[in-house]
Amino acid sequence: MQKLDKQFIKKVRRQDRFATRAITVGGLLVIASVIAILVLIVRVTLPLFQPASAEVIHRVAVASGQPPVLAVGMDDTQEVGFTLNNTGLFSFYNLASGKTFFTAPASDRKAKVQSVESNKNNVFTLLWNDNSVTVAQVDFRLLYDEFGQRTVQPEITRMGEYPAQRYPAPIKSMMVRSHEDRLTQVALLADNRFQIDHAVVTTNILGEEKKETFSFLLNEELPGAITAFTLDENGYALFAGTDTGSLLRWDLRENERAERTDNVVAVSGDKPVTALAMVFGDISVAVGDADGGLVTWSQIWSGEGNDRVQRLRKTHTLTSHQTAVERIIPSRRSKSLVSLGADGKTHLDHMTSEKHLLDLEPSLTMAGISGQGNGLIGLDSRNNLTVWRVDAPHPEISLKTLFGKVWYESYDKPEYVWQSSSASDDFEPKFSLVPLLFGTIKGTLYAMIFAVPLAIFGAVYTSQFSTATFKKTVKPVVEIMASIPSVVIGFLIALWLAPIVEKAILGVILGVLFLPLIFVTIMAILKPFYKTPTLQNFCNGHEFLLLVPVILLAGALAMGIAPTVEHMLFGGNFKQWLYNDLGLRYDQRNCIIIAFGLGIAVIPIIFSITEDAISNIPPSLTAASLALGASRWQTIWRVVLPSASPGIFAAIMIGFGRAVGETMIVLMATGNTPILDWSIFNGMRTLSANIAVEIPEAPMGGTLYRVLFLCASMLFALTFVVNTGAELVRERLRKKYGRY
Amino acid sequence: MTKKFWRQGEPFVWATGLALSLILFLTLLLFYVVLANGLAVFWPKKVALATLQDGRSLLGEIVQEETIPHNEKKRLQFKIGNRDLYGLDFKWVDASEITSLTYPKDVHVLERQEYGNFYGYLSEFEVKGIAPPVSGSNSLAQTIGALEDRKVEVHLLGKKIANLNRRVELIDHHLAKARYNKEENTPALAAMQGEKQGLKTEFEALVSILGEKSAALATNQAIFTDANGQPKAIALPNIVRAYQPNNMSFFAKCAYYLERLRELFFDEPRESNTEGGLFPAIFGTVMLIFLMSILSFPLGVLAGIYLREYAKDGWLVKMVRIAVNNLAGIPSIVYGIFGLGFFVYGIGGGIDQLFFPERLPTPTFGTGGILWTSLTLGLLTVPVVIVATEEALGSIPPGIREGSQALAATKLQTLTRILLPMASPGILTGFILAMARAAGEVAPLMITGVVKLAPALPLDGVFPFLHLDRKFMHLGFHIYDIGFQSPNVEAAKPMVYVTTLLLILIVLAMTSTAIYLRNKMRQRHSVVDV
Fold this sequence. Notes:
The complex is a heterodimer. Helix content of chain A is 39%, strand content 28%. In chain A, the strands form eight sheets. Chain A has a four-stranded antiparallel sheet, with no helix packed on it. Chain A has a four-stranded antiparallel sheet with strand order 2-3-4-5, with no helix packed on it. Chain A has a four-stranded antiparallel sheet with strand order 6-7-8-9, with no helix packed on it. By secondary structure, chain A is α+β, with helices and mostly antiparallel strands. By secondary structure, chain B is of the alpha+beta class. At the A-B interface, α1, α3, α4, α5 and α6 of A face α2, α8, α9, α10 and α11 of B.
């Protein structure tokens, strides 16, 4: 015998130790990384729920002894801030150094500014105390030098000088808006009336411009003294609040007159409205009152056809101030609002989510918002300009907007809506996950109704009644069926099956009804013969072959009589009847199709696991039952199925998990419309398909991107819980019966 | 007796049988639909000449026939082609309107580079530089054949130009990098500029030659007439294939079928993927599976071995096992979105920041590509491999391990010499199942790097040969894309069926092999058990 080489043994031992370590580390790493998936997905969604924060980035002292400041603002890069004082002088500050580097007057007028108003494009309307008006825009140009260094160059564009007009009374304040060749000026007079002036430029066919002016007074009886008013960006609607808490709205679309459309009580208890501002998008108006209440009212279309009118409805209540709301500044990028209380407290709120984002210290008398909506500039009582960088990346997301009913702009009641994007900038994104969850459940449910009985019964037959050789062929066939790519199933059911079903929908329904009927009839016919030896010999284990003609017969019969039935019962057109009499719309890609497709995808899974579970029941159990005189069905029903029920439950769970996450079939075979409707004749949008549809358009890090990750984590969690439950149940079953 | 029949539940037994028949029926129906539609696509169909009541006539393949609901009349759908003349490919005609239906022998069907098929009669040639065609039934084929050399020449020229283009692009990247690194006036840079200039001149020269040659080629044309005698000149190089289906023998049809199959496997797609071949998609699928396997198999086997052979059995291992089992059931779209967030934006974005900052904001790796797709699919299939490895190792009786160790073999020796060889069929089964799954998955690919038309393959002759950052095409996505995103779904259907058939065949072949292997392994081990 050859002696073992010491060297060799050493080498082998070394290798073994190394391998142990390598395999352990490698294995643990793989498992850790696989589990890290969940963590990473969830991490992407977390910023959605992070509270907003604000950080003071600059503080600049405005020189004392200057005339009082009437407005403040800043540029998008948050490098330059400006103030407008009551002599009409704009002063621009380099915020980093705190120096004034540029000043420019809004006008050459030597008078005092009585009131100032600005719109989303930094267009300032200055009302001088001699009743003349100046409109000027503040612009920031970004200049790059040869080294790529950036400087911000402020510019004042004088957009218009309007000499003092003849007003029947002194003016309190003034707003100017222009849209498509029409300039609208609205002045609130001291006698509680509005004067409205339109300057319209029309161009005729020859290219000649004609200028017309319209001027009129609103001589209506008002419910109280006007305390605040605002105009939308186009000058189409005028909103006014009174000291009695009324909110009024006039339609200014026509040049010659204004029609008052609304008079609602916005503040209860005769408290005055103290601040009004249009929310970005010009559909909602934010109303602040003397008690500190802050609510938004929306112009909502109601009525039908030509009678459709916009009416004001209260849609959102935001967090209240302690004292009267003095000023509301809307963001120019989102539905966020900055509001200033009389006590100097500053709130940042989001309208859609009603989320209170921030409280700012110290107390401010004046505030402005940067164009991007991520910067805030304020002037406090000690004449300091303070600039905050606001970090509120996803203000529109809260648990309520994700899972609750939300009253969106232009909707007549709070609803669950998913609509992530639109062509316009001022669109209010709607991120309700409820329709998606609903769609997921709906599709899965119909699929399970179709698949579970078939799969379980089929598995019972295969494992208990069929012959051994047949069992050997059926199992691989079902496994092969399980491997059919879902894109293939999706394509077949959407482009081949759906048109067929659409043409013969009634036939399909009748077929489903006829199949059991014909089956029972055949059973009744068979009854007298079933004990005869020929039938017994042939049938045992081959019953299913005899039943294929039943399926074909039922199908043929249903298709054959469908036109007659349709003619007799449904006036010749079943789909029309559905729509007219039941109010159900028939979509080509509907739940019947989905149930079928998802069913085909999950049947093999449920079948295989059920078959395993039933086959694992010890034969001694069945043998004992049969020996006691139970029939083969009684044995199955009373003995085998109850014992295997945890396994069957696990099978259903795993099938459910697969159906919930299936993407391609749903993506291809539904219309992907996120609707809340149980009807079997229309489609839905599921969580998984939603991800596939929307992710190509979701910029990384954006709200939509994170919400889609939230969808993914929900899917992950759902399937993980379901699968783990099923796995535990199976584990127990295995322990109970061991491996036979 | 009758009562017994119902009480003993015999009908329920039959009902379970009915369920099984339904399942099998549905499965067979599915395969039948795919086979029947997929196999028939390339078989040349007869072209019918229908004369209508109003005197006009119509040439086309009869696609389907149906009864109009509510009035019991029949109507026929013709594929009339000639999209450039009529604007649409298909037309429904009421059977009652057709006065005669004949199959003229001299009808030509032309598959063209654009505008789909043409159905018509050949009337004359206008050719230059080649021998005037002899009259006869196959004069068209001869004439097209005579132009073949020149077509190949133009094609090669085009390829050359594309190659030049790519080289210029590469130099541009180097230049951008140099500019980013603030290198100026180095000799290398000047050399590169010079090379670029040289390439550009070459490029322009080639482009003008190509323009001349293809223009010269395009002057060779044949005049055809449609069913109503309307003439149409068609440039011969635009004709991909011409045949006379009503005048073909069975063998000629077989030859035609084989030729179409060759085109399917080896040619590029045409007409926004609805015609031509599937070569890039097949290549992309195979490459994807290959890359995915390299990434996922070693890791999966490693984890499986660890779990079964090295980890101490405890609640942690049990939990991990359940977790891994479960991961196989996590929806693939979740893996996809993870791949997008982690691989594409996370790692890919990081690589771009580190190595290709000069190209930003144009992403290099920070956008979908075959590497990220393979990694995502690798993750998706790792649980399958782990479970298969574990089960294969677990089914080896413990006596074998003990025997080996009793003979003083180390754990590693037992593993490599005894256990792994014994478990190999099981592990192989896992591999094949994982590959089949990877071949059939579409959802995660859609968001991590598959495109409808990739300009270049991920593997080619340009340095560094393997381009992991490139996007690619995939059979499964091809089905989704041409079946659902194409502007002319009806015309695209045949191609979808063919792609479906191909994909199903690939997946089924893999799965069947896996099942066969598994059954074999089971037999072997059952012997050991005894």
